[in-house]
């Protein structure tokens, strides 16, 4: 968090006491989290700890079972809230891209602009091309998603979300499904977004990215926030035992074998 | 003598070819070609079927099929939506309908519409209306299941991505989910039309005027006035003229979606 900003940044996302259950399985058990405007927060934690669920509660792809979530000051759990209006201000990037396979790359980036924002075709195309250019894929505008590599598809997905001029972006493990050699391109795009001042909440296992780009890192385990703070502190010198164990495994995969028996109780 | 597995396979395949070839030769030699031709393809009888077999029979088969398909598709869309509705009674109704009409022979449905319902309620339907309802109601059940499977084959992430861009549920369905389901559904839907084409022959159960004859009825009437099976063979050929291109079309759609999926 660069404290040099003179105006106090309003919180973009406030999550307080968030609970989410699937049947009797309580996945989130009272999450508290804030993301300030312009801030980049990386969310880390073991698989199944509820990171995706938390993200999906922020744009109400999942309905919270309890607690408060506000986005840009709007309580998203209010039954009267304009959900579609809210979602279009929140960009979301999925692990498996979820590009529309029947539409070209350009159409992927224009369809919601035209159908939701009612932008004229020419303006939508202009915005889409600008964002495709931003992610380095201006020359792929006419390709179908299936003709692109995973990394290229994910960059199109980012351009698609950006084309709606979102106020903040959610990323759910955007590089986890990618071939290693294409991860860098996607991270580079995300880094440039962060530098441009985009508010970002990123679920990731890329500790290098978290350390360099994130203002704050939040470690989640078993449905609660265990530890959060500046990236260098949480990743560099974690205080909580669970955080330490998790980071050991992620940063040094060979370590997993030795600790597997002790760590696999969950 | 030791024989490798590959050699054995080759010998076995050779033997099968030899047996097949022998059977064909015996058939050709033994068959009474004159007799066969008189029975199945008598040129004079064949010529007599034209042009009615095309202008009446083939035309009516196409009309009956089209009428059935229009009702079947509309009913199928409605049933599929009911089947996936969040309102439980809609789901039950649709399920009962689908299970009933898939489980009962189309023949029975035709009898019901042709005789049962008119007698029971004292109403008389026009032939075309009867055909439309009987064929349509049966195919609606199959089409509903085809459509539902197609819609559910579109990954959930597609709807989520559309919603996350701010699209309403109906907008996301119209712009994102249904176009993809349509591609998935085209091959089975084409097969549905093939089945419908053949089921239209059940119209023979109804009392038909001459001008309402379709291919099967037309063929049966023609052979009853003597002249061997030639009219039926011609009718069969006419069915193939409709169904074979449809089958090829279905396969084209299939290979196209497969390529897309890679
Ligand atoms: N739609 C769902 N229905 C039932 N259980 C779910 C559903 N989505 C997630 N879960 C459960 O919630 C827990 C957390 O999942 P998730 O948020 O995806 O974790 P993470 O993203 O941290 O790996 C898991 O145990 C998962 O099985
Ligand atoms: Mg996840």
UniProtKB/TrEMBL annotation, chain A:
<dbReference type="InterPro" id="IPR003439">
    <property type="entry name" value="ABC_transporter-like_ATP-bd"/>
</dbReference>
<keyword id="KW-0472">Membrane</keyword>
<dbReference type="InterPro" id="IPR050086">
    <property type="entry name" value="MetN_ABC_transporter-like"/>
</dbReference>
<keyword id="KW-0067">ATP-binding</keyword>
<dbReference type="InterPro" id="IPR030679">
    <property type="entry name" value="ABC_ATPase_HisP-typ"/>
</dbReference>
<dbReference type="Pfam" id="PF00005">
    <property type="entry name" value="ABC_tran"/>
</dbReference>
<comment type="similarity">
    <text>Belongs to the ABC transporter superfamily.</text>
</comment>
<dbReference type="GO" id="GO:0015426">
    <property type="term" value="F:ATPase-coupled polar amino acid-transporter activity"/>
</dbReference>
<keyword id="KW-0813">Transport</keyword>
<dbReference type="InterPro" id="IPR027417">
    <property type="entry name" value="P-loop_NTPase"/>
</dbReference>
<protein>
    <recommendedName>
        <fullName>ABC-type polar-amino-acid transporter</fullName>
        <ecNumber>7.4.2.1</ecNumber>
    </recommendedName>
</protein>
<keyword id="KW-1003">Cell membrane</keyword>
<dbReference type="InterPro" id="IPR017871">
    <property type="entry name" value="ABC_transporter-like_CS"/>
</dbReference>
<dbReference type="GO" id="GO:0005886">
    <property type="term" value="C:plasma membrane"/>
</dbReference>
<dbReference type="GO" id="GO:0005524">
    <property type="term" value="F:ATP binding"/>
</dbReference>
<feature type="domain" description="ABC transporter">
    <location>
        <begin position="13"/>
        <end position="247"/>
    </location>
</feature>
<keyword id="KW-0547">Nucleotide-binding</keyword>
<keyword id="KW-0029">Amino-acid transport</keyword>
<dbReference type="InterPro" id="IPR003593">
    <property type="entry name" value="AAA+_ATPase"/>
</dbReference>
<dbReference type="GO" id="GO:0016887">
    <property type="term" value="F:ATP hydrolysis activity"/>
</dbReference>
UniProtKB/TrEMBL annotation, chain B:
<feature type="transmembrane region" description="Helical">
    <location>
        <begin position="63"/>
        <end position="82"/>
    </location>
</feature>
<dbReference type="GO" id="GO:0006865">
    <property type="term" value="P:amino acid transport"/>
</dbReference>
<keyword id="KW-1133">Transmembrane helix</keyword>
<feature type="transmembrane region" description="Helical">
    <location>
        <begin position="94"/>
        <end position="117"/>
    </location>
</feature>
<keyword id="KW-0029">Amino-acid transport</keyword>
<feature type="domain" description="ABC transmembrane type-1">
    <location>
        <begin position="58"/>
        <end position="250"/>
    </location>
</feature>
<dbReference type="GO" id="GO:0043190">
    <property type="term" value="C:ATP-binding cassette (ABC) transporter complex"/>
</dbReference>
<dbReference type="InterPro" id="IPR010065">
    <property type="entry name" value="AA_ABC_transptr_permease_3TM"/>
</dbReference>
<comment type="similarity">
    <text>Belongs to the binding-protein-dependent transport system permease family.</text>
</comment>
<keyword id="KW-0813">Transport</keyword>
<keyword id="KW-1003">Cell membrane</keyword>
<dbReference type="InterPro" id="IPR043429">
    <property type="entry name" value="ArtM/GltK/GlnP/TcyL/YhdX-like"/>
</dbReference>
<keyword id="KW-0472">Membrane</keyword>
<feature type="transmembrane region" description="Helical">
    <location>
        <begin position="229"/>
        <end position="250"/>
    </location>
</feature>
<dbReference type="GO" id="GO:0022857">
    <property type="term" value="F:transmembrane transporter activity"/>
</dbReference>
<dbReference type="InterPro" id="IPR000515">
    <property type="entry name" value="MetI-like"/>
</dbReference>
<keyword id="KW-0812">Transmembrane</keyword>
<dbReference type="InterPro" id="IPR035906">
    <property type="entry name" value="MetI-like_sf"/>
</dbReference>
<protein>
    <submittedName>
        <fullName>Amino acid ABC transporter permease</fullName>
    </submittedName>
</protein>
<dbReference type="Pfam" id="PF00528">
    <property type="entry name" value="BPD_transp_1"/>
</dbReference>
């Amino acid at each position: 968090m660069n404290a040099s900003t003179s105006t106090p940044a309003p919180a973009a996302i406030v999550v307080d006491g968030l609970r989410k259950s699937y049947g009797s399985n309580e996945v989130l058990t009272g999450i508290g989290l804030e993301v300030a405007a312009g801030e980049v927060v990386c969310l880390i934690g073991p698989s199944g700890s509820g990171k995706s669920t938390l993200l999906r509660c922020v744009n109400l792809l999942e309905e919270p079972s309890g607690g408060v979530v506000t986005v840009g000051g709007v309580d998203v759990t209010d039954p009267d809230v304009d959900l579609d209006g809210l979602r279009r201000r929140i960009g979301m990037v999925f692990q498996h891209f979820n590009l529309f396979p029947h539409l070209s790359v350009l159409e992927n980036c224009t369809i919601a602009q035209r159908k939701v924002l009612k932008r004229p075709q020419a303006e939508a195309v202009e915005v889409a091309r600008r964002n495709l250019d931003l992610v380095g894929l201006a020359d792929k505008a006419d390709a179908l998603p299936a003709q692109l590599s995973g990394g290229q598809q994910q960059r199109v997905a980012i351009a698609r979300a950006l084309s709606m001029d979102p106020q903040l972006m959610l990323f759910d493990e955007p590089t986890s499904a990618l071939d290693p050699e294409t991860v860098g391109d996607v991270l580079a795009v995300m880094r440039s977004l962060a530098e441009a001042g985009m508010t970002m909440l990123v679920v990731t296992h890329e500790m290098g990215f978290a350390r360099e780009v994130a203002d704050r890192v939040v470690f989640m385990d078993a449905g609660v926030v265990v530890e959060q703070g500046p990236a260098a502190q949480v990743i560099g010198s974690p205080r909580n035992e669970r955080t330490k164990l998790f980071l050991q495994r992620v940063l040094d995969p060979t370590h997993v074998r030795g600790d597997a028996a002790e760590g696999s109780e969950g | 003598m030791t024989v490798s597995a590959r050699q054995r396979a080759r010998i076995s395949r050779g033997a099968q070819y030899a047996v097949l070839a022998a059977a064909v030769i015996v058939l050709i030699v033994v068959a009474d070609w004159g007799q066969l031709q008189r029975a199945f393809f008598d040129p004079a009888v064949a010529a007599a079927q034209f042009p009615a077999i095309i202008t009446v029979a083939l035309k009516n088969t196409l009309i009956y099929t089209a009428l059935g398909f229009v009702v079947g598709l509309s009913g199928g869309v409605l049933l599929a939506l009911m089947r996936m509705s969040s309102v439980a009674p809609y789901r039950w109704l649709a399920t009962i309908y689908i299970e009933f009409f898939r489980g009962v022979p189309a023949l029975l449905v035709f009898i019901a519409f042709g005789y049962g319902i008119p007698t029971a309620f004292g109403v008389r339907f026009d032939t075309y209306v009867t055909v439309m309802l009987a064929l349509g109601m049966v195919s609606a059940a199959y089409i509903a299941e085809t459509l539902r499977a197609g819609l559910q084959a579109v990954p959930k992430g597609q709807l989520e991505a559309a919603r996350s861009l701010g699209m309403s549920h109906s907008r996301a369905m119209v712009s994102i989910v249904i176009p993809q389901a349509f591609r998935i559904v085209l091959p089975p839907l084409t097969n549905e039309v093939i089945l419908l084409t053949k089921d239209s022959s059940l119209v023979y159960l109804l009392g038909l005027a001459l001008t309402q004859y379709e291919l099967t009825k037309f063929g049966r009437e023609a052979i009853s006035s003597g002249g061997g099976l030639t009219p039926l063979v011609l009718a069969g050929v006419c069915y193939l003229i409709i169904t074979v291109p449809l089958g090829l079309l279905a396969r084209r759609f299939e290979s196209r979606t497969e390529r897309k999926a890679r």
